[in-house]
Predict the 3D structure of the following.
Amino acid sequence: MLRIAHRLRAPTRLSAMRGMRYTTAAPDDIRKRLTDELKTAMKAKDAFTSTTIRSVLAEVYSADKLQAQPLPGGGVVSILRKAMTRRADAAAEFDKAARPDLAEKERREADVLQAFVPPLLAPAEIDRRLQEVFAELQPAPGDKKAMGQVFKAFYARVDRSAVDTDLVKKRAEALLAAA
């Protein structure tokens, strides 16, 4: 009986880790915003917002562990966009299943995450940058290898998380066909 009481009073590994920070490098702006908003939501006792942000941060920390170094800001934004897409898809499925309550919950979660995602690059800006790449590389029409070089040069200039990749692919294919 005495041993049990002693174990309950002894500091546990979990209690020792509570004060530790999860990030090991200089915090990126988006990561800092997420953690700051999590703290604010927890202080306000907003369980919905804090749970939503915690789920995304768990994905970020999991991705950090898979790499040798912490995920850059663009990677965190990519995780946020994927989480928003999953929630939008889930809301659509709940609507099909006549569960508007669950669909609304998923939409609210997507709205919470939307506040952290920077806007995508405008299509006109994508076109301008693609035209710069095409002018520089001068690919032959219909050359599939040239398309890979175009994408490589484009994404060297533009962060992948800042653009809609499907739109970039369509615009690049159209420019290559017209070249």
Remarks:
- Confidence is low (pLDDT under 50) at residues 1-27.
- The CA atoms of residues 67 and 124 lie 34 Å apart.
